[in-house]
Automatic annotation (TrEMBL):
<dbReference type="Pfam" id="PF01613">
    <property type="entry name" value="Flavin_Reduct"/>
</dbReference>
<dbReference type="InterPro" id="IPR002563">
    <property type="entry name" value="Flavin_Rdtase-like_dom"/>
</dbReference>
<feature type="domain" description="Flavin reductase like">
    <location>
        <begin position="1"/>
        <end position="136"/>
    </location>
</feature>
<protein>
    <submittedName>
        <fullName>Flavin reductase family protein</fullName>
    </submittedName>
</protein>
<keyword id="KW-0560">Oxidoreductase</keyword>
<comment type="similarity">
    <text>Belongs to the non-flavoprotein flavin reductase family.</text>
</comment>
<dbReference type="InterPro" id="IPR012349">
    <property type="entry name" value="Split_barrel_FMN-bd"/>
</dbReference>
<dbReference type="InterPro" id="IPR050268">
    <property type="entry name" value="NADH-dep_flavin_reductase"/>
</dbReference>
Amino acid sequence: MAVAAQIDGAPVGLAVSAFVSVSLDPPLIALCIDAASRTWPALRGADTIGVSVLTEEHAWLGRQLASRSRDRFADAKFDETARGALLLDGAAARFECSQESELPGGDHLIALLRVESMTADPDRKPLLWHDSEFRAVAPLP
């Protein structure tokens, strides 16, 4: 997942590997974020946050967003919503969210986000993080 927002005129974002649907009414999702993240404290204060499901073509971006040493947004195209969420162009699904609450979860934080709007492209295959590497989704034989 690419999690991003425009804050004080600059893009701020990170990669998240744990994402789950929580509720349909109200529409809620949860993200698990490293408690030591230096990026999440800035993102949590954004009016809205973009959550984009990466596709197989975005493996390079997943690594780049997880990097601490380079421009996380180099060569990536994001669309900015009216409230400042950044949504990845070409994502399998895109969610504009506001923060609902946050809970401690061991060495991670569990961010509960309210989905304000979402779009999805069923023709785009999501990218998975499994066994410390990116994997493609494949149909069962």
